[in-house]
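The pair is listed for reference:
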Amino acid sequence: MLTPITRTHTPGDEPTVKIQAPGQPDGDQGAKSKRLRKAGIIAGAVFGALVVLYGVDLLMSSGEVPRGVTVAGVDVGGQSHEDAERTLREAIEPRLAEPVKLRGGDVDAEVKSADAGLSIDWRATLDHTGEQPLNPITRLMSLFGSSEEKGVITTTDDKKLDAAIEALRPKIDREPAEGTVKFEGVNPVAVDPKPGQKLDAAGARQALVDQWATGKQVALPVSVTKVKTTAAGVKKAVDEIAKPAVAAPVIVHGEGKDATIEPAVIAGSLVFKPAANGGLTASIDQNKLVGAVGPQLASTEVEGKDAQIVFSSGAPTVEPSVDGKGVDWAKTLTPVMDVLKKTDGRELKAVYAPKPAKVTTDAANKLGIKEVIGEFTTRGFASDSGVNIRTVAEEVDGAIVKPGETFSLNGYTGPRTKAQGYVEAGVIKEGAPGREVGGGISQFATTLYNAAYFAAMKDAGHKEHSYYISRYPAAREATVFQNHDGSSVIDLKFTNDSDTGVAIQTIWTSSSITVKLWGTKKYEVESITGGRSNQTPPQEKPGPAENCHASNGAPGFTTSDTRIIREVGSGREVSRNTRTVKYNPQPKIVCPPPPPAG
């Protein structure tokens, strides 16, 4: 067999033929072959060495934690399980005694692992580190610093953990707070906005379970609610709105008198709200401003007078109303925000407008107050009680109750104290006679109640005396009481549920009090008093050591009153209502014997 013939051409020469013997390589291919054999020998040697190294490494590390494994940041790679547990306990257990540091949004917090029901399952943690890998590449990489974080296996008390998460809400959760401007005296201070945030309970739970043992701060996820304002926008409002506004007073020119709005008042009246551009808009709380500056111009205003029903001739007549004049603050303060921007010329002109009476002459004439629709008289009272009855009667005389309105005796008179002309008089306290400023008013209340009763007014609330008083009709009487500060305790109220007005007339004498209700009479009223039942005898009660007044007491009983309302003219029955009243026995007061003489 012949080998290939290589022909070599030399320019100008005849072709030369070279014949190569079988089995004899040429020079280039021989060199290449030698190199390949050498590389193969080296590769085989390296591979063999790696195989030997792999075997030795596998043999020597059998049963240990894989190299490069960390648990909660602690390197336990290449250790036996026993050594690894010791290493972990030494590194991690001191952390467990310290509170776990947390951060939810921009709020720092902490929780004790025991309170959160968190503990480490050491055996499960070590098992979780895995076994020696058989993959030679993995083992080779571990020799060059490759690491893997495993984390601890946590045992949780779900109830404690959930409770601990919820206990973080008061500190971490907050509503969004827009930026604003507050004043410290007359110095404006920027209050930067704060977005709202709410703890993600499920996410926080997982983050805490995963990271609590690392010794690092655990980031808890929160949902964020954005705000409209920005810190830059708030600062701009301070510089461009607030500071100029309180730079100097504002003068309000009234009729014949000026008022001054001081910077402190301006500061207290400014109201800031978020604007669309991240800044703030400002306005004035007129009520606050008027409350401060209004009294300065009060003398320039003229108070009006409501129309009144008077009984100078025995019959009701209308005393005409008189309109007043006052500052129209809404118009006066319309340009105030522009004035607050100025450095000089900080002035306003008071605008005056008529102030119509609340009850005009025309309105009073249309109330239909023309005849007596109910009246009642009670008699007999001590002179000091008579003073109080006269005082309250004068206050109530001429009162108008419009259709649909409710009259309140305590509300109409206000506090009944010495300042209003009331004096100390007799009262019954816990069944025993006593004295209080305003005593005796209950007799007027009973008289007014009966006048309203026979005028067919709607009872809007009253209370009978606890003990029966013989000068009053049983089950058809009322008492009233106030605290010393004038606040109402027991009141007398009735509602005018007719379509015409009602006027109250009071007539006082030294021995009687009469109340008449005037309006348009539409009803006749009949009262039927029931019999007495369930009588109970009085009990003895020791009187006070000082100022004791003995009394024989009186029995208690139950009785009733039925009111029948009929239409005038037709006699048709409109309503029939029965009220049952239980009176307590009035105790027999026994006074202690006087101290021995001498």
The CA atoms of residues 165 and 201 lie 7 Å apart.
